[in-house]
Each structure stands twice: as structure tokens, then as C-alpha cells.
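FAQ

Q: What does a record look like?
A: Structure on top, sequence underneath. For example:
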């Protein structure tokens, strides 16, 4: 529960408050990019990618619309066709 609250706070603080899915995706990418360098320094790019992949898998259980989002091997979020 605490991690969900942290994620919500990050979206509020760092996000642009958009209500569209595309805007939400852009906010997610922005937040992940800010976290990528410091976390990859601690865990390596593979570790960061694995952490983000696991987080995305858990989020997809609650938000099936994230099914078109994937984590590239370099730890960058990518949306596939169909994210409207």
C-alpha cells in the first residue's frame, strides 16, 4: 500500500496532471527517466530494467490498458500500437 501511495505522489508531483491515457503514459515515461540514472547506477541497467518490468507487470494486473506498454532491454518504457 505504501508503494502505491508513493507512485501516486510521484504522478502528482512530477506529472502534468493530464487525464488522457497518452498524457498518463508521457508522465510515466518522464518519471521513469528521472529514476533511471540513479537506480541503474545502483543496480545496473539490467537490474533497473528488471525492476521496471516487474513494476509494470504488477500495474498491468490493476490497469489492463497498460498491456500495450513494455520495457525495452535498456530500461526505457515503450508503448506499442493500440495505446489510445
Amino acid at each position: 500500500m505504501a508503494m502505491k501511495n508513493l507512485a501516486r505522489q510521484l504522478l502528482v508531483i512530477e506529472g502534468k496532471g493530464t487525464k488522457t491515457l497518452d498524457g498518463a503514459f508521457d508522465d510515466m515515461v518522464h518519471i521513469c527517466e528521472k529514476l533511471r540514472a540513479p537506480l541503474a547506477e545502483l543496480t545496473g541497467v539490467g537490474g533497473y530494467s528488471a525492476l521496471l518490468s516487474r513494476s509494470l507487470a504488477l500495474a498491468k494486473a490493476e490497469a489492463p490498458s497498460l498491456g500495450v506498454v513494455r520495457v525495452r532491454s535498456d530500461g526505457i518504457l515503450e508503448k506499442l500500437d493500440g495505446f489510445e
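Q: Is there anything notable about this one?
A: The chain has two helices and two strands.
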